[in-house]
Specification:
Helix content is 33%, strand content 14%. It has 12 helices and 11 strands. It has a 6-stranded parallel β-sheet with strand order 8-7-6-9-10-11, with helices on both faces. Strands 2-1-3-4-5 form a 5-stranded parallel β-sheet, sandwiched between helices. β6, α7 (214-223) and β7 form a beta-alpha-beta unit.
C-alpha cells in the first residue's frame, strides 16, 4: 500500500558510465538544476552485479518506493531540500577531511540539522566499534538526542554493544540492526572441488591498509608450514604472491582463480561485515575469518586478530579437512547468507522500523 509521506534518502550513488546518462548528468550540472535526474530514483547507472556500497541504496530504494514517495540524494551533494514536517529523513553521514567530525557541508548533515526537531530522522551506516573509523559520528548522537540508528554490520558488533563508544548515547529502541545484504545468485558458484590435503592455497582480495590487519596475513606466510597465498590488491603483502591489482571479478575470472585457490581469508580487526566474505561463500570458496570481520557462523573457520599460534593451528585444520567437510562448510555458510543476508528480509526490517516509529 502506498503512503503519502516522503522519504529523503542520502547515500552513495554510482557515477554514470552509459553515454546517454553521462550527457544528461552534464546538462543537469551545467544548468544547475535543483532536482538532478536521479532525485526520484530514476536514471541511475547501477553496476551489474550491484556491488557494495551501491547495493545498499539500490535495494532500499526499490523497497521504499513501493510504500513511500522517494527523494534520493548523492552523499556528496550540497543541495537544499524541500522537506515537509511529516517527511522521513534517512541519511548516510560522511566525515570531514580530518576524520574528527561530520562533514557539515553535505546534504546529509543539512537535512539532519534542518529537520531534526520536526521529522523522524534515521542514520543509516556501516558500523563497528573502532574509534578510528566511527568516533567522528559521536557528536551526532550526542547533540541530536533521540535520533534513530540503522547500523549495517554483522551480529558480532551488536552482541558486543557494551564495547561501543555509542553505548550510552543511543537507546536500544532507537536501534534497528541489519546485516549487510547480498544477492547470492548474482555471484555464480565457480568452486566445486578443492585441492588435496596439505596443498590448499589461500586468497585475499581487498585493501592493504588499516584495519585489514595485513601484518597477520604476512605472519601466516612466515609461520605456517607450507603456507601459500595469493592476493588481489593495489598494495603489497609480504610472503604472498601478487595475482593482480584491482580488477573486474567476473564469473570467468573467478573461475580461473577457483582452479588454483581454495580458501578466502580475512584477518580484519574492524570490519562492519566484509562483503568479500559474502561473495567468496557464494562463489564456493571456503572461508577463514576473524569475528571482527563481521561474521560468526559455523560456515566459517575462525581465526584470531593477534594469536599466530592459534591461527597456524587453524590453517593446519584446513589443510587436513576432508573435501566433504569443506563442501559442508560452504553449504552451511551459504544457507546462513540466504537467511541473514538476503535483501528482502533486510529491507523489510527497515520498513517495519519506519512503521513502528510513525
Amino acid at each position: 500500500m502506498s503512503n503519502s509521506r516522503t522519504v529523503h534518502l542520502v547515500y552513495s550513488l554510482p557515477s554514470p558510465s552509459k553515454k546517454l546518462y553521462k550527457a544528461l548528468y552534464k546538462i543537469s550540472q551545467k544548468l544547475n538544476l535543483l532536482h538532478p535526474l536521479y532525485r526520484n530514483g530514476n536514471f541511475i547507472d547501477w553496476p551489474e552485479p550491484v556491488y557494495a556500497p551501491f547495493s545498499i541504496p539500490f535495494n532500499i530504494c526499490n523497497t521504499l518506493k513501493n510504500y513511500y514517495k522517494l527523494r534520493l540524494y548523492n552523499i556528496f551533494e550540497t543541495a537544499d531540500a524541500d522537506v515537509k514536517p511529516d517527511d522521513i529523513i534517512m541519511v548516510h553521514l560522511w566525515p570531514n577531511k580530518d576524520f574528527t567530525d561530520v562533514n557539515t557541508n553535505l546534504t546529509s548533515y543539512k537535512l539532519l540539522e534542518k529537520c531534526f526537531l520536526k521529522n523522524k530522522v534515521y542514520v543509516l551506516s556501516p558500523y563497528n566499534h573502532d574509534i578510528k573509523q566511527i568516533l567522528w559520528m559521536k557528536n551526532i548522537f550526542k547533540n541530536f538526542k533521540g535520533i534513530n540508528f540503522i547500523p549495517i554490520c554483522g551480529d558480532y558488533w551488536l552482541d558486543t554493544w557494551s564495547n561501543s563508544p555509542f553505548k550510552d548515547l543511543i537507546k536500544k529502541e532507537h536501534i534497528c540492526h541489519v546485516n549487510m545484504g547480498i544477492d547470492p545468485f548474482q555471484y555464480k558458484k565457480v568452486k566445486f572441488k578443492y585441492s588435496p590435503k596439505g596443498k590448499r592455497k589461500f586468497i585475499y582480495i581487498g585493501r592493504t591498509d588499516y584495519p585489514k590487519n595485513i601484518e597477520m596475513l604476512e605472519n601466516l606466510a612466515s609461520n605456517c608450514k607450507n603456507f601459500k597465498g595469493g592476493y588481489i590488491s593495489s598494495g603489497t603483502i609480504k610472503g604472498w604472491e601478487k595475482i593482480s591489482n584491482y580488477c573486474n571479478l567476473t564469473d570467468e575470472y573467478m573461475t580461473g582463480l577457483a582452479s588454483e585457490y581454495d580458501f578466502f581469508i580475512s584477518t580484519s580487526v574492524a570490519d562492519a561485515q566484509a562483503t568479500t566474505i559474502l561473495e567468496s561463500v557464494c562463489r564456493g570458496f571456503g572461508v577463514a575469518a576473524t569475528l571482527e570481520s563481521g561474521f560468526d557462523s559455523d560456515g566459517i573457520i575462525k581465526i584470531d586478530i593477534n594469536n599466530i599460534d592459534f591461527n597456524c593451528q587453524q590453517i593446519n585444520v584446513i589443510q587436513n579437512m576432508e573435501e566433504e567437510e569443506i563442501i559442508k562448510l560452504n553449504v552451511n555458510g551459504f544457507n546462513t547468507i540466504k537467511e541473514k543476508n538476503n535483501w528482502k528480509n533486510i529491507c523489510n526490517k527497515i520498513l517495519n522500523f519506519l512503521e513502528m516509529n510513525k
